[in-house]
Amino acid sequence: xADPAQQRIVYSLPGMEQVRVxxxxxxxxxxxxxxxxxxxxxxxxxxxxxxxxxFISGYPDPGFEKVVGCRxxxxxxxxxxxxxxxxxxxxxxxxxxxxxxxxxxxAVQFLIDHAADYQIDPTRLAIWSCSGNVPCAVNLMCxxxxxxxxxxxxxxxxxxxxxxxxxxxxxxxxxxVNAAAGRSITEIGELPLLLVRAGQDEFPGLNDSLDRxxxxxxxxGLRLSLINHPDGVHAFDxxxxxxxxxxxxxxxxxxxxxxxx
Length: 261
Prior knowledge:
Layout: E1 20-30, E2 33-41, E3 50-55, H1 61-68, H2 76-87, E4 91-95, H3 100-113, E5 120-130, H4 134-143, E6 150-154, H5 166-174, E7 193-198, H6 206-219, E8 224-229, H7 236-239, H8 243-260
Parallel strand pairs: 3-4, 3-5, 5-6, 6-7, 7-8
Antiparallel strand pairs: 1-2, 2-4
C-alpha cells in the first residue's frame, strides 16, 4: 500500500519533476526555530517576475509530522501540485509553520517584501488550500484581500454559518486551526474565489458548510466560481484516476493562470 504522505496528484505534465526548487529558505524565526519555505521556479524561468501561488497550511507542523511522518511541505501532494504549477509558468511556494494562522500571514508578507529576490511579482499572488487547511486560508483572505489576486479552496471546511457548529467540531476532532472562526464572508471583499466541491465527501458537515457558504456568497455578491465533482471523494485529486478528476485539475490550473496574469 502506498505511503499517504508520498501520494501524488493524478495529473502530470512532462518535465514537472525537473523544475528548480529553492529549499528551506528561512522566512521567519519563531521560538528560536527557523521556519523555512520551498520555492518552485518555472521551467522557463528567465529572471523576469512571475505570478506566485502559496499553498496554505492549517495544521501545526510538529503535530502534523508526528501523525503523518513528514512536514506539510514535504508531502507528495504538495510537492506534485507545486511542480505542476511551476511547469505551467507560475512560482509555487510551500512553507513550514508552528502557528498556522500567523505563519500564513507572515509567509505571504515575506514573499511580498522579498519578491525581487525570488523573481516573484508581488502584485500577482494567489493562494491554494484544501480540507482542514482552508480556515487558515479564509482568515488570510479576510486579512489581506488587497494583496491577493485570487484563492482556490478545494473540498474545504469553511465557516460556521446560520448557527452551524460543524467547523468548530471538525477542528476539535481533526486538530486543524479554525482561524476563520468569527470571520464574515463580507470581509473577503472583491477577491475572486474558486471553490472545488467533492460531491461524495465523507467528512460529516463539510459539504453542508460549503453549500451554506456558496448560498451566502451568492447573496452577498462575491466573485465566486464553483466546480462540483459529483462523484468525487475527499482529496479526489490524489485518489481518483479518472478523466473528470484530471479535467478539474486542469480547470484549477486555467483559473489560476487567467486570474494571476
